[in-house]
Design a protein that fits this description.
The longest helix has 28 residues. By secondary structure, the protein is α+β, with helices and mostly antiparallel strands. It has 19 helices and 27 strands.
């Protein structure tokens, strides 16, 4: 593996995203851009206006009488199983007897044009019997209403340790949810074939799950359903399970009418109907010694799961596995509560519960520091995981690759952190309206899906006789550059130019039984599978070349589009032709499974992560104490990417993830009214970061010379999610600024998101004399 590190063509740091130009020139094709097939129907969903209601009857006859309307379908029209649950069971694609949130699809209207369908929706009569909704985390908790059995991670004896500790504190904190706000909303196009075959173009991170959902709803076997996705216009976890509903409903219409059918959600429909990041409330209890070293800790992590479990068990497992962040907690209990509410089912979102877990532990360390009159950085330092000892996580995994101390010291030294802090003290002493804050955020993020079975991937590689290469694998492209990275891997294996590799759409009939492209593991898994496929073909080509040159196989060398043996050489295309003539296969499937993983979902213990990805950020902010407005003035990041497969792509991932995290923690606020209706369902009321929110001074460094200690593909590390959590430094810096607005004796009461209103309130509270 290591000698294959000559990543093509040496200038891998210059290779850009394969679709970069197409993205910015509008030439990249998304599902809604595909040329329309004749008779394609457009679908609009009828959704519940109530958060909780019995559906007594649905009458579509008036709608059906409208010009252009071809079908009005409800759960009763489903011939297969009305269940698209990704993990558990009993999660209908379309509400049958009960509507469980405002926006819950209860019927579909299909018409010749979008406008006809949109108007006809208003004519569908649904008779509801309103039921009492449970909307808030605390109400679901009081009723012990959960979407699945609450899980707990335990290590040691936290109660005893807290009782014996010199100091003890309790507190609470909360963080909001987040809409994915991908540029391309959820969309699927279903095209019926002969017999009961169904071709579905779906904007999904998980084509196999969409295939399963369609097959279940239509009542046909998996081999009758093919799902294809070339690219998504952003996904961020929002297209892991949610597109299955969209694909299944499009397929339902296509199957019932025999016509192609497209379901494309408008922005506000997408925001109302599909799940988001889980909001959390946390209660904590912690015991620590005179220096601030944690002796025992108990955290309740209460998540708003929404109406069904969906992926909540995976998300909460990751929160429980990241409540330690970078700190050794020898006596710990993390209790998870997946609260079932009459709100849209929350789902995967970049970080997958990890960011929420980290928020609470950082708040606790800050609280300890405040109590002992020490800085957060000092408290962190004495609680950091060790390398030889103090290195077992609460869920029982031993950390063998810890670099967090070096990473943090390195960045702090580099940017003169202590000096900057002093400058901020001076600024704050001289200014009463504007107050600055600064904070660091170290991040340790586990790489692999918690559930070991998901850590597998397949690939399909063909070499044609003209030397061109066709590449397919189970991973999907959502803008993160996975296709480029995997193409680089194959180009490297064959030592041909990357332009020689044709990147193709992900299809369930090419590579079956895939996992979602998620958990940041896309390139780790699919890169390895593609490498395996390419190497099988290469081995056959080596045999043919050896015979051709009359040389031994170990004398054959692939270099710069040519194959050398002795003093002779052939072009890659010539050898491909000769391999065909020799009747050797130029096609192979590759496979990879991540080794040595274990996870027991009942005891919440094991070694679920193949390795950890590390990073640290430092952010400096300023707040206006009269308006509550804030700005991030400067951010420095040092991120571990292992031996980066593609530094350009990785920089983009770090920058994008950080800004997305900043949005979550500062401006993106989801507001529901007391009837469970989402009030913030468009860009006018839901504020994602704009280009001017990006810190004016934004320095990103990828850690040099840091090959992954594990034999991942070319020793690279996953990058998709970890940097999102670096944005927690912004939130901590804002808390620091709020604290400095007062006399320093009070801890700020500031949850996430720290919107201007929230900051103003926190400042007012901290300045209040009592
Ligand atoms: N980057 C872009 N541009 N668009 C996205 O939708 N999704 C993120 C991350 N980076 C996303 C992205 C999420 S949630 C994950 S899990 C990873 O990409 C998935 O891809 P990977 O495994 O190839 O990193
Ligand atoms: Mo990413 S939340 O794992 O799709």
């Amino acid at each position: 593996m290591d000698d294959a590190q000559n990543i093509v063509g040496a200038a891998h740091d210059k290779i850009q995203h394969d679709s970069a130009v197409k993205h910015v020139t509008g030439k990249a094709l998304y599902i809604d851009d595909m040329p329309s097939l004749p008779n394609t129907l457009q679908i609009v969903l009828v959704t519940s206006p109530l958060a909780h209601a019995n559906i007594k009857s649905i009458d579509g006859s008036l709608a059906l009488a409208e010009v252009g309307v071809v079908a009005v379908l409800t759960a009763k029209d489903i011939e297969g199983h009305n269940d698209i649950a990704p993990i558990f069971a009993g999660e209908p694609a379309i509400a049958d007897k009960v509507a469980e949130y405002v926006g819950h699809p209860v019927a579909v209207v299909a018409a010749e044009t979008y406008d006809q369908a949109f108007q006809a929706v208003k004519l569908v009569k649904v008779d509801y019997e309103e039921l009492e909704p449970v909307l808030l985390i605390k109400d679901a908790l009081a009723k012990e209403q959960f979407t699945y059995t609450p899980p707990t991670v335990t290590q040691g004896d936290p109660d005893k340790a807290m009782d014996a500790a010199a100091h003890r504190l309790q507190g609470e904190v909360a963080c909001g949810g987040q809409d994915h706000f991908y540029l391309e909303a959820n969309v699927a196009l279903a095209v019926p074939g002969e017999d009961k075959d169904m071709m579905v173009y779906s904007s999904t991170q998980h084509p196999t799950e969409a295939q399963h959902g369609v097959s279940r709803v239509l009542g046909v076997p998996s081999n009758a359903v093919t799902v294809e996705v070339r690219r998504m216009g952003g996904a961020f976890g929002g297209k892991e399970s949610q597109p299955t509903i969209i694909a299944a409903l499009a397929a339902l219409v296509a199957s019932k009418t025999g016509q192609p059918a497209k379901l494309r959600l408008r922005r506000d429909a997408d925001m109302i109907i599909t799940g988001k990041r889980h909001d959390f409330e946390f209660d904590y209890d912690v015991g620590f010694d005179e220096e601030g070293r944690i002796e025992g800790i108990d955290i309740a992590m209460m998540m708003r799961s929404g109406n069904v479990a969906d992926l909540s068990s995976g998300v909460l497992a990751r929160s429980l596995c990241h409540g330690d962040n970078c700190y050794y907690l020898k006596n710990a209990r993390f209790r998870g509560y997946p609260c079932k509410t009459n709100t849209v089912s929350n789902t995967a979102f970049r970080g997958f519960g990890g960011p929420q877990g980290m928020i609470v532990i950082e708040t606790i360390l800050e609280h300890i520091g405040h109590h002992l009159s020490k800085s957060l950085d000092e408290i962190r330092k004495i609680n950091f995981y060790g390398t030889e000892d103090r290195n077992v996580t609460p869920y029982g995994q031993t950390i063998t690759d810890n670099i967090i101390v070096e990473l943090t010291d390195c960045l702090m030294g580099e940017i003169n952190y202590e000096g900057r802090k002093k400058a901020i003290d001076k600024f704050n002493a001289e200014n009463s309206t504007l107050k600055k804050g600064i904070a660091a955020m170290p991040v340790k993020f586990g790489i692999s899906f918690n559930m070991p079975a998901l850590n597998q991937a397949g690939a399909l590689v063909h070499v044609y006789t003209d030397g061109s290469v066709h590449l397919n694998h189970g991973g999907t492209e959502m803008g993160q550059g996975l296709f480029t990275k995997v193409a680089q891997v194959v180009a490297t294996a064959f030592q041909v130019d990357i332009d020689n590799i044709k990147i193709s759409s992900t299809r369930t009939d090419k590579v079956p039984n895939t996992s979602a492209t998620a958990a940041s593991a896309g390139s780790d898994l699919n890169g390895m599978a593609a490498f395996d496929a390419a190497n099988q073909i290469k081995a056959r080509m080596v045999g043919v070349a050896a015979r051709h040159f009359g040389a031994s196989e170990d004398e054959i060398e692939f270099r710069q589009n040519r194959i050398y043996g002795g003093n002779e050489s052939l072009s890659f295309a010539e050898l491909a032709q000769k391999t065909w003539e020799a009747r050797e296969s130029l096609s192979a499937t590759g496979f990879y499974q991540t080794p040595d993983l274990s996870w027991d979902p009942i005891t919440c213990s094991g070694s679920p992560f193949y390795y950890f990805s590390y990073g640290v950020s430092i952010s400096e902010v300023v707040i206006d104490t009269l308006t509550g407005e804030s700005r991030t003035l400067r951010t420095d990041i040092l991120q571990d990417c292992g031996k980066s497969l593609n530094p350009r792509v990785d920089y983009g991932q770090i920058e994008g993830a950080y800004v997305q995290g900043m949005g979550w923690l500062t401006s993106e606020e989801l507001v529901w009214n007391d009837k469970g209706r989402l009030l913030t369902h468009g860009p006018s009321t839901y504020k994602i970061p704009g280009s001017r929110d990006v810190p004016p001074e934004f320095n990103i460094h990828i850690l040099d010379d840091a090959p992954n200690r594990m034999p991942t593909i070319f020793r690279s590390k996953a990058i998709g999610e970890p940097p999102l959590m670096l944005a927690i430094s912004v939130w901590l810096a804002l808390r620091d600024a709020v604290k400095r607005s007062g006399d320093g004796t009070k801890l700020p009461k500031l949850n996430a998101p720290a919107t201007p209103e929230a900051i103003l309130k926190a400042v007012t509270e901290i300045r209040a004399v009592n």
